[in-house]
Amino acid sequence: MTQHEFIDLPPLMSAHGTVRLPGSKSISNRVLLLAALAQGTTVVRDLLHSDDTERMLDALRILGVDVESLGDNAYRVMGCGGNFPNKNAKLFLGNAGTAFRPLTAALALSGGSYELSGVPRMHERPIGDLVDALRQLGADIRYLGNEGFPPLQISPAILPNELEPVKVRGDVSSQFLTGLLMAAPLLGRGVNVVVEGELISKPYIEITLAMMERFGVKVWPRLDGNEHDFQHFVFFEGKSYHSPGTIYVEGDASSASYFLTAGAIGGGPLRVEGVGNTSVQGDVRFAEALEKMGAVIVMGDNWIEARAPVSGKLHAIDLDCNHIPDAAMTLAVAALFADGTTTLRNIASWRVKETDRIAAMATELRKLGATVEEGANFIRITPPSPPAPLPQAGEGSLLRHAAINTYDDHRIAMCFSLAAFGGSGIRINDPKCVAKTFPEYFKMFAQVTQTVPVIAIDGPSASGKGTVAQRVATALGWHYLDSGALYRLLGLAAQKRGIALDAEEQLAALAGQVDIRFEGENIWLDGAQVGDELRTEEAGSAASKIAALHKVRAALLDKQRAFRRAPGLVADGRDMASVVFPDSVLKIFLTASAEARAERRYKQLKEKGMSANIAALLQDIQARDERDTQRSAAPLQQAQGASLLDTTPLNIEQAVQEVLSRYRALESK
């Protein structure tokens, strides 16, 4: 992974708005395959555009199925009645389990020779239970690598004269049963499927049965009119798939979980459209779990809306998650904001997904400060004590800033984006992995979340930016960052340790170690309060020298960004608007003539009883301006998008009011 393959999410303060969900991955790939297996032409609308569906579309085209893009996520599929025109093909299916498992079953019974492979992780995901079940139907499947795992070689099946009940395990992955059920009608004979052990992820089987019924195949027996016992599935002879004409794909209910949780943590209301009361997806029940945690949930036929708890905080839950296996991952991150220990049970299927999700979630949650216990089929999360406050419930940062590894798993990337509400922001490594199901996720997430606002005030030495910034922060009730003080403190710490001001490596290492704290107007260095020594010309000159060092600036970057906390931050320096906080809501380049700045510095020093020479001060300011504008590391210049504020004719109060006026003008837009 290159150093650029990450996305930094700044601290988030609120979330509200409306999101139109992309199509469901589970429904999309089921519908595409069923349309290919059916008689007639099917128009599929609102199909999910993602890596997984691209793998299915590519596979169907290689198999000779006529698939035509109609634009706007719509496709026309010419069904082949299960008789694929291409009887000999090699298919690469990436890490798309919703394509690999059902295609394995369908191709095993379609009379051709096929080789199926995927990415290395797919070759670690078990498929033996499905292969064993298909072999009971006469399928000829050979493992090309490790026994029980892809890649696979499929040859034409030899059907037995008598079909005994087909047994399939249900406690590893529901996709095995889904593949078997979708392929069974291709036999044209009566089939009885028996599930051994407890069936996990039952809602996904409900999706399978609902989609099969849309294509004309009902599965029996039915209990209480329309329910299955999920242990026995009976197909009657002569049943085959027929096109429904046009079919619409529901929004992805698993993807809804991230936005609903954002609404619960970030205040809301945040509405997701595309799923609701009438959805066939089991993951819509994620909203019930969030409601148990205290969120305010409202639901319509095709939408769900979430708001923060009335109490202002979420509550821990102990939940059997068999009914929402994918969406339950989002609850693990929501647990960081809950009061108490959250336990998520019956999640053994996490172990055989895109990665070992139980192990991966435990590892990454610990980075944020959580205490995590993991078992074969559960995860238990205790947040930092006390839990991270909801943004509206109080300021502070109780979640550590961390770089989250995503293990090429789209759901890990998306659910950990919610940790940005913990006050410190978050880095997501390899964010492009969301393309598997939701390529536009981070763009849509940004549209409905609001970052902690920053006013960045840059400018030359002695321009008054520090005083202006501090008073603007006080007027708004925001936090304040004097970035120049960080460099002065580092220079002071270097002098105390005998480190030369041009020893870049040593200074960068020191920047990562030194303990710096601001408390009101007081500044602390390594546990000791420091005062006027930071405001001397010597300290300023030292700061200017070390600030020109690239590695020092990089080492101090995270320390500066850590000041960004609710309700907002006013930061002053040289590169606040261009490098440290490029997403600032207001960027000011505050300046004044060198003569005016020298006079202000002279008065400031005299008021503190310190000796000063105005001619020497002017010469020093001019020299520092030259050095600061010419240096290669963050040269002093007006950042793109920054507005100029020349304070030569203004006093401090006038300058403060001008900054406040510009900010309020932006607020009113």
The helix tally amounts to 21
Beta-strand percentage range: 15-25%
For this structure, what is the CATH class of the largest domain? Alpha Beta
Over all CA atoms, what is the radius of gyration?
Answer: 31 Å
**Main sheet characteristics:** 5 strands, mixed
Intertermini distance: 41 Å
Q: What's the CATH topology label of the largest domain?
A: UDP-n-acetylglucosamine1-carboxyvinyl-transferase, Chain
**Overall SS class:** alpha/beta
Strand order of the largest sheet: 15-16-14-2-25
Count of strand segments: 33
CATH superfamily of the largest domain: Enolpyruvate transferase domain
CATH arch. level architecture of the largest domain? Alpha-beta prism
Q: pLDDT below 50 for ≥5 consecutive residues: which ranges?
A: none
Outline:
This protein is an alpha/beta fold and 669 residues long.
Question: Could you describe the 3D structure shown?
Answer:
- This protein has 21 helices and 33 strands.
- It starts with 5 loop residues before the first strand and ends with a helix.
- The strands form nine sheets. It has a five-stranded mixed sheet.
- The chain folds into three domains: 6-21 and 251-451, UDP-n-acetylglucosamine1-carboxyvinyl-transferase, Chain, CATH 3.65.10.10; 25-248, UDP-n-acetylglucosamine1-carboxyvinyl-transferase, Chain (Alpha-beta prism); 454-667, 3-Layer(aba) Sandwich (Rossmann fold), CATH 3.40.50.
- It is 35% helix and 22% strand.
- The chain is an alpha/beta fold and 669 residues long.
- The longest helix is centred in the C-terminal third of the chain and has 17 residues, at 614-630.
